Known about the structure:
The structure is a single chain. The chain starts with 9 loop residues before the first helix and ends with a helix. It is globular and about 60 Å long. Helix content is about 75%, strand content about 0%. By secondary structure, the chain is an all-alpha fold. Mean pLDDT is about 75; it is low at about 1-20 and about 335-364. It has a two-stranded antiparallel sheet with strand order 1-2. It has helices at about 10-15, 25-55, 75-95, 105-125, 130-140, 140-150, 160-175, 185-215, 220-245, 245-255, 260-285, 285-310, 315-335, 350-360; strands spanning about 55-60, 65-70.
Amino acid sequence: MQCSTIQGPIDSVDLLIKPPAMHLPERSRFVIYAVGIFVCYFLYGIVQEKLTRGRYGDQVQADGSVGERFTYALALVWVQCLCNYVFAKLLLTVRPQKEDTTHSGSYVACSLTYLLAMVSTNMAMRWVPYPTAVVGKSAKPIPVMILGVLIGRKSYSFIRYACVLTIVVGVILFMYKEGKVSNLPAETTLLGEVLLFLSLSMDGLTGAVQERIRAASLPSGQQMMRAMNFWSTLMLGFAMLFTGEAKEFLYFTLRHPEAWTHLSLIAVCGVLGQFFIFLMVANFGPLACSVVTTTRKFFTVLCSVLLFGNVLIGRQWFGAVLVFSALFIDMIYGKKPAPSSAAKKLPVEGKLIEEKKKYTAEFK
């Protein structure tokens, strides 16, 4: 049952459930959000590499290198969260929506797990072999699905489970590179693996909390974006002050004001990318979002292979076939049955409940 086909008094309810601009077919919206995530974070990665791996100034460092490196990870994320909050706040000011009744404690918990996941991932990448990091990052939909069932009270069809697991296996087979190994001590690698496990656990908790938020109050993508970035900005601000990174970051940007150009570009790409992410979460759930963000890296590498003529080995071709097959099957057969005809006979209040259930269901 589509909202756009409901006539009479339910039209005003429809406007509360989703903005008027979103009267697009479900799959069209899914494709738009997915493409938006792909493009924004592709550009985001390019600019971020220039910021974090580039050199600023011509001063000779202690190791003989020329120029300073940007090493302020907390400040980088803080700038992004602040810009994301301002953008979402502006959207909601220009186009007000129904009141978000979500308890602030839910957003605090969601923001905390989100930040812990991000910090743990950044730390783990320093101490684990490349293949381990790829496997860990590609397996993100698994804890999202498991904890979504245990905590978020979600239920998925067997086809959904099979497709998600197939996508994960396909991405792992495609991205895994045996040649890049680590010569770090065993205890150091173990620490990195623990951090990677912590990151995956926090990703799962974030998805589970988001599921409960969606089921309880059905906030829009802009409302979720505003609330989560508000609390993330506060938490990171306190962390920067406590560690002293805020002062060091300010001095760095005063010495090298050109860094603000890269920061601004990252903020723009991050704002738009996160906007599409929260639209995806609000409309299709965190599991669909995690699948999209997982396959994003796969498609990025695949495009580079096709554009630059790199050769794929048999294992990578097999992984690519698995990913595309699982995505196609999920789109065709993973969709839950439509509501029964009895639902059409419900009064307006009953229709509202049915509509809420529909928009809290996973995109299949």
